[in-house]
Amino acid sequence: MASFLDRLAAVVFASAALALFAAMPIWHRVAESPEAESRQTISARDFSTLVEAMTKAHATGEAEGGVPIVHPPAGDVYVIARRFEFTPILQLDVGRTYRLHIASTDVVHGFNFPLGKAETLLVPGWATTVTVTPTHPGLYAMQCSEYCGLSHSRMKARVRVMP
Amino acid sequence: MRDAPSPGYRETSALSLTPASKRELRGWSGLAVAALALAGVLALLLALSRTPKIQDFLPWPVQEFFYRALVTHVVFSFVVWFLGVLGALMVLTTARLAMGQTRARRLGTVGLGAGALGCLILLAPALLNWGEPSLNNYVPVVIHPVFYAGLVLLALGVGMVAVRLILNLPGREVGPVDWGIAAAAAAYLVALVCFGLALIAIPSGTGEALFNERLFWGGGHVLQFVNTALMLVGWSVLAEITLGEMPLGPWLSAAVAGSLVLFVLPAPVFYALFDVLSREHRDAFTQMLWYGLAPQPVVMMAGLARLLYQRRTALPWRDPAFVGLVLSVGLFAVGGLFGFFLGVADTRTPSHYHAVIGGVNLAAMALYFALLLPLLGRSSRRAGPIRWQFHLYGFGQLLFSVGMFLAGEAGVPRKTAGAEQGLDTIGKVVSMAMTGTGGIIAVMGGVMFVWMALSRLMARR
To answer: How many CB pairs under 8 A join A and B?
Structure first.
């Protein structure tokens, strides 16, 4: 009896494992996060120029860890990802819609930004755009999600959302 | 009249060991615990290199030394230790299958030599200030040809023992535990294939950080199947030694072992399906782990729960092997549960993997005392200190993981220290204090294990 139950359990388990295995392509589709972002090619130099112009026009005069804080109006905003920082730090307003363009100017970085439902790779030469409409004030983390060097774990910034 | 109880796994293993296989078993067992001892020494040097005044007396540049030593510490405590235990169990299984008629016998000796030489070479960059460190996932490296050569030698050494085990399977009587070790060996060989394919697929000119991350990403995920196979084998053997019965029947054990191999088989195909530098490649391996590594421990835990319920009136709580088994299962279960509540960038992620890896570690430690040392004629009659060691490591690691989980729930970011943690509430401070206290207790348990295992292994008979 014990031997029969053992064989039966083995058949049930093996069948379940095979079914889970056969469903592998489905897992891939189910787990894939919605591609909210779009991408355009742009050189590091051109992108840096856009960031400098925005920072010059909308800097608050404050800085965090040497990184300037900017308070841009709704519309296009630009952030550079580079080892090991995101610059500038954004200060956004609740209820306004921003098109956040982000690009790496050195090596490949990951971009994890739950507020913008973004999880993507930032390959130099490409800018990624996500649309963000904050609904609640607070501090929202963005961080690098692809190993980029010894201080990778410190590559993070906090977007400030004001009421 | 009752039949005499049939001999168990440990007893039949002892009968199968030839002098040559016993030498190999001693070699891999020694390598495993020596790796932990070296990792401990490096951890001490890491602590000293961060201590004001004392750091001035160290004979090397502290800043450069720190990260190289950290990399070497992680590789020895996480990679070499598990591979050493795997090597020992593969030698044992080969001996059990072959019963003195080992095919490709020399692969074992050459493999052990390559593994030991690889470990020696791995130490050189940290001690001689060579190369730049890289803290990439799974197998962090010092970017220097000598370090990579050490890794290759170690990988090939273990690989040879794995190949020999597979060659000794056909036509032999294979028991449930043997299937488990064979599954670990097969998964290990798949991991080696993944490392090789990654090396071929990564374009030249890729930055060093991304190169190392993607080189070890796929194979590193597959190695977690190897670790899980080791743990499940550990649970089966420990249950049989302490409760007189394995948790699962032979057919179900074989099905569980086979499923571990089944889920890693597509891993090499991912290198053809997805660009090795893409997010899709990264996610494919993560999903393989999430979906393919849950069913086996759940089934094994159900079998153990049945066995514990049946024996509930006479559980051997004074037997250190039983304590190690229960703590291993408990810690792994807590880690598995935490896995369902992961955040994005907070300390809930490390809380999950520290508990899960702690469960694997406890199973390996308990196997060391209950199986490997007795087979080498080095068992101990003093159960108390061993039991204490398991309690310290198990409960310390549990406290560490629960503290990290609560801190993550409260919003403490992972991989930060000092002011960066933002410990601005009582809850965050208390949970991180739990983490720190648990860490210290677990380290005490780890040091006790190394001391007791090494002293028994090296004691004169």
So the answer is: 105
DSSP state for residue B80 in the 8-state scheme: I
pLDDT value for A32: 57
Contacting A with CB below 8 Å, chain B residues are 67, 133-137, 207, 209-210, 212-213, 248-252, 254-256, 258-259, 262-263, 266, 277-279, 282-284, 287-288, 291-292, 295, 299, 344-345, 413-416, 420
Q: Nearest Cα to B83, choosing from B44, B123, B105, B112?
A: B112
Residue of B nearest to A30 (CA): B287
Angle at B420 between CA B67 and CA B349, to 5 degrees: 75
Q: Where are the domains of chain B?
A: 316-461
Q: pLDDT at residue B152 above 50?
A: yes
pLDDT(B411) > 90: no
Pick the CATH number of A38-162 from 2.60.40.420, 3.40.50.620, 1.10.8.60, 3.40.50.300: 2.60.40.420
Mean pLDDT of B285-314: 94
Q: Do B251 and A7 touch (CB under 8 A)?
A: yes
pLDDT band at A97 (very low <50, low <70, confident <90, very high): very high
The confidence score (pLDDT) of residue B461 equals 62
The residues, ordered by sequence, that sit 6+ positions from B73 with a Cβ below 8 Å of its Cβ are: B39, B42, B43, B46
Q: What is the mean pLDDT of residues B267-287?
A: 94
Residue numbers in A near B287 (CB within 8 A): 24, 27-28, 31
Q: Which of A1, A5, A6 to mutate to test the interface with B (most CBs of B within 10 A)?
A: A6
CA A61 to chain centre: 26
B276 near B356, Cβ under 8 Å?
A: no
